[in-house]
Write a structure and sequence with these properties.
The structure is a homodimer of 261-residue chains. Chain A is an alpha+beta fold and 261 residues long. Chain A has helices at 8-23, 46-62, 92-96, 169-179, 191-199, 212-215, 219-223, 249-259, and strands at 34-35, 43-44, 67-70, 74-76, 82-90, 103-110, 113-121, 126-130, 135-139, 142-145, 158-161, 184-187, 204-210, 228-231, 241-246. Chain A is built from 8 helices and 15 strands. In chain A, strands 4-3-5-6-7-8-9-10 form an 8-stranded mixed beta sheet, with helices on both faces. A 5-stranded mixed beta sheet of chain A has the order 12-11-13-15-14, with helices on both faces. In chain A, strand 6 and strand 7 form a beta hairpin. The longest helix of chain A has 17 residues, at 46-62. Chain A starts with 7 loop residues before the first helix and ends with a helix. The interface between A and B is medium-sized, with 29 and 29 residues.
């Protein structure tokens, strides 16, 4: 088989290149934005569709038997043992606001478990890859290992979330309480925060209401860097939900205790 | 005089290079962080001091008669008609968290009015410069003019702030009200949000309690791109305070009306 000849790491590098070529020409331009949700603001850009098409074409070529789920174009071969999950532009609000904290997320599931993943940020030129063998970030041609911080205590933790407004009711109160117990908290990060946990610069991320494509590509980065990813409800994070990622199991448990009341 | 021979734009490019050389080796490394404020978290890094030293040396060489105010090393020649204002690393929380939305800010005052300024983000490799003649952003060797969006209505505006927690009491209530009237709001941006107003990707930024060095370098970028910068209290933004920047005077007035109740 064609894919047996190439390391998965190299395939992810190709995916990052293809995604950058499709997305970057649309970044920092005036975009035609349509709203997917009548009640909210959920921009879909030409970049989203062009990028997902480019990634799907590459995966179809390399792994024709694998399933593919993408944010824009849905699922093919849902029963395949290996399935790819694509978010072409995670952080579309950042994207349309010119901020370089959006990313292209691609993950590979082996019977439902995320075993390999990638985040690429083409404006900074950085790529994060974990393929089951190597977990690295690459920028300007230099690689560094992905390694979570080892932080175990809330009082020493840097906590990130996309926006506190995404927490509803009791969950918001608990998140507010969590903020008072950490060293530093920060908003507005989307996928970038998870990559920073994998790289060891952030310690804890909680983002409620994520879809599978928001998180599958990131799980291998964090887990293969020594961190942990879970859901507040206890289910597998590959299925999305209220996601919590931490540098260590101890930190995860401490944050869980606050978030579950 | 030496400085008469060189366009100010080129001096800013040199400053950006010197700042990148001083700051970037400290980014994405484990930093020695000391706390300036006993009660809060205000990291001072080696990057801060090294970067300000590099910028001061360059300004002293090019403009020996000008005054200089920097976040780390205070003021020299406070009575000079031209004074430079330096924030070596604006967004130190972003810096220590690995996020590429911090920046080096340098502005030049002419008798108290900000007439030229620069923001540089060396990890993305982007520089924003406005020298009174040219207002441009430069990335990977390509220049684009700085041009504010022209947005006049709150309902169409993208609003940014660093964190809603920075608004106290009545101001927080008014900011919360403002959020409900805009198209999109976003947190966690520091100086980057102001640069995005200058570049036309964001429309409105409100950040309370800024120091002069947090804003002086940014005012020329926004004003020379067609935008406006003011304080909620009505004083000159060069002196810091509760800063509001907008793509147009109309948008500024609409936001002011909400924030002043």
């Amino acid at each position: 088989m064609k894919n047996m000849a190439r390391p998965l790491f190299d395939v992810f590098l190709d995916i990052a290149d293809a995604a950058a070529a499709a997305s970057l020409p649309h970044f920092r331009t005036v975009l035609s934005v349509s709203n997917k949700l009548a009640e909210g603001f959920d921009p879909v850009t030409e970049a989203d569709t062009a990028t997902e098409r480019a990634i799907r074409a590459l995966i179809e070529s390399e792994f024709p038997e694998d399933g593919i789920l993408g944010e824009e174009f849905g699922m093919v071969r849902a029963d395949a043992p290996y399935r790819w999950v694509i978010d072409p532009i995670d952080g579309t609000r950042a994207f349309i606001s010119g901020l370089p904290v959006w990313g292209t997320l691609v993950g590979r599931l082996d019977r439902g478990k995320a075993v390999a993943g990638m985040m690429a940020q083409p404006f900074t030129g950085e790529v994060f890859i974990a393929d089951g063998t190597r977990a690295e970030r690459i920028w300007r041609g230099v690689s560094a290992p992905l390694k979570a911080s080892g932080c175990k205590r809330l009082s020493e933790a840097k906590l990130f979330t996309t926006s506190p407004h995404l927490f509803q009711g009791e969950l918001r109160k608990r998140f507010d309480a969590l903020e008072t117990q950490v060293r530093l908290f920060r908003y507005g990060t989307d996928c970038y925060a998870f990559a920073m946990v994998a790289a060891g610069f952030a310690d804890l991320v909680i983002d409620p209401g994520l879809k599978p494509y928001d998180i599958v590509g990131l799980i291998p980065l964090i887990e293969q860097a020594g961190g942990v990813v879970a859901t507040l409800a206890g289910g597998p994070p590959e299925e999305g939900g209220d996601i919590i990622a931490a540098a260590t199991p101890e930190l995860l448990n401490a944050a869980m205790a606050v978030m579950k009341g």
